[in-house]
Automatic annotation (TrEMBL):
Keyword terms, alphabetized: Calcium, Metal-binding, Signal
Organism lineage: Bacteria, Pseudomonadati, Bacteroidota, Bacteroidia, Bacteroidales
Gene3D superfamilies assigned to the protein according to its UniProt record, in alphabetical order: 2.40.360.20
Residue sites binding Ca(2+) 1 per the record: 137, 139, 167
Sites where the protein binds Ca(2+) 2: 139-140
Superkingdom, taxonomy of origin: Bacteria
Residue span, DUF3108 domain: 32-231
InterPro entries referenced in this protein's UniProt entry, alphabetically: DUF3108-like (IPR049279)
Molecular functions per Gene Ontology: metal ion binding
Annotated signal peptide: 1-20
Name the UniProt record assigns to this protein: Exported protein
Amino acid sequence: MKIRNLMVAATLLVTAGAMAQNQDCAFFFPNQEGEQITRNCYTADGKLTNILVYRVDQAYEYPSGMEVVANYTFADAAGKTLNSGQMVARCSDGNFSMSMGDVATFPTALNMMNADVYMMGDLMNYPDAFSNPMNPGDDDEFDDGTLRLYQKGNKNNRAEISVFDREFVTTETVNTPAGAFYCTKVKYEMNIWTPKETIKGYGYEWYAPNIGIVRSEQYNNKKELQSYSVLERIKK
């Protein structure tokens, strides 16, 4: 499995947001059952490569916060489903976090999606920069995360995707086909490891309350754009 380019990271784990009513926590993922978001993934020159759809299946409220379970489908540009599964988004004691299934849009994962793949990843947090408008991002601490992929029955077909050194950049408005959203922008470093090679790069992601990630961009170490993803539509 030879990987030459970094592709869309959806960045990291799947995100979106809604303000939970029973807690002081910004929920960066849709929190109503049946809500659906679609994000399109492109090469650096704008060619559509993949379509990622998340749909909220179940939403639970607890005294300490809220948890959402969402189903996702990952399709090619023609709409053929390549893989599907579930992810979790959670607000607990004022902190939002989400499973890392979204980084399955990295190129290493793409090459494995037609196989019987098992994914195991960390929960990563998404701090609320809007809670302190005078100093957005002040004192925010961002988790590192690792997603491991294994093809069942073939131990040589495996990958490890690490996201680290995440840091607040700014807050700004991002325009997408689904509308304009005021977002937190975060930068991160990433390594993609396989038995054959290790690829290093970095990326940016923009996430908004009630939506989650509305845009992501991935670069190689030469500062060349490799791929990006954009929020395409929202279905209530």
